[in-house]
Amino acid sequence: RVWKGQFVLRHRDGSPLGVSIVSSPVYDARGRVAGVVNVSAPLGGEAGVRPARAATILVAEDDPRSRELMVEVLRDAGYEVVEVSDGALALGALRDRRQAFDMAVLDMQMPGVDGMVVASEIRRDRRLRGLPVLAVTALTQPGDAVRVLEAGCDAYLAKPVSVSEVRKMVAEML
């Protein structure tokens, strides 16, 4: 695996912030770069920073602010997080045998391959079908929760979500 870069975020005074960021390109079937996967996790051994738990969570969210918030909430709870910006990248990351995930958190309304398609594909894949899938979505009309759960998600949170709500649901699902 060739990593494009690994960075340790630091405070202005140069002291470690306690977060490691790794970026890796994702390639399509023709070998072209299709996107970038960013992995962030707390650094072990830093003062005031809890070591990462064994759980690795995939977050697929097209809105950069929503994705950043979800990643921060999960990372602050001590999870390793892999973030992607669309469903196609999520499926690529999930099917990459070099990375194992303990859970997926999916936005349902992403352009191209949406979260419902990703959830359905997870349930069709023999290797992935037991993966817990949490839908975090703005779909709040009558019947939306049923459609999301029928697509293959195990649980549903309607946006906007609270930090405590996300942490509680993730802990229960793992």
Structure description:
The protein is of the alpha/beta class and 174 residues long. It has five helices and eight strands; from the N terminus they run ββββαβαβαβαβα. It has an eight-stranded mixed beta sheet, sandwiched between helices. The longest helix has 13 residues, at 64-76. It starts with a strand and ends with a helix. The model is unreliable at 1-11, 15-23 and 42-53 (pLDDT under 50).
SSE pattern, N- to C-terminal? EEEEHEHEHEHEH
Mean of all residue-level pLDDT scores: 78
Number of helices: 5
As residue ranges, the low-confidence spans are 1-11, 15-23, 42-53
* Distance between the ends: 28 Å
Task: Bin the helical content.
Answer: 25-40%
- What is the CA-atom radius of gyration, in angstroms? 16 Å
Structure keywords:
disordered N terminus, 29% strand, alpha/beta, eight-stranded mixed sheet, 174 residues, single chain
